[in-house]
Amino acid sequence: MGKKWTEHEGAVRLLGGEFAKMGENLGHGQVDDQMKLLQNSWSDMLVLDHIHQRLHNGLPDETTLHNGQKFDLLGLGLLGVPSLAEHFNELQNKLQELKFDVGDYICMKFLLLLNPDVRGITNRKTVVEGYENVQAALLDYTLTCYPSVPDKFSKLLSIIPEIHGMAARGEEHLYIKHCAGSAPSQTLLMEMLHAKRK
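Structure tokens predicted for NR LBD domain-containing protein (198 residues):
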């Protein structure tokens, strides 16, 4: 147990070091690049965050507000598309089978954020290097901490396009609602949605 814990701590420290370097490099980059990356990945990260919160913090599908009103948390994670619930649960089950943990979550979140294919990035080299560093850290982490989970690294990477597909469907749903006048127009959410479509 002691050796396993020490390896786990080492992998987490490695991840932390990689993220600190990457954040510093992006910090020296243009704010426009940072905004473009965030605008491109916000919905993907929302889906991943929601799965993570359900797996590790017991986030319920619904909660009751102080005024007694019910709030649909699962609907929030699905970006308002209830037909995605089954696929969402399948993704959650896949991640649970892979023993998805906080280290995996952090790496996957950065992989979603650091998409080198985002249009208009001026410092693409830094984004590519960051993406590659995170991939290498995730590979090392999965091999060090989860040798008993076969192909964990490649299976985690294969889930990223599935998350992206769900998020894209949710964005389309929100955009259609906005165009039909049934969603507020002056919100950060709509601003992010419009920025991604430019």
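Confidence is low (pLDDT under 50) at residues 1-8.
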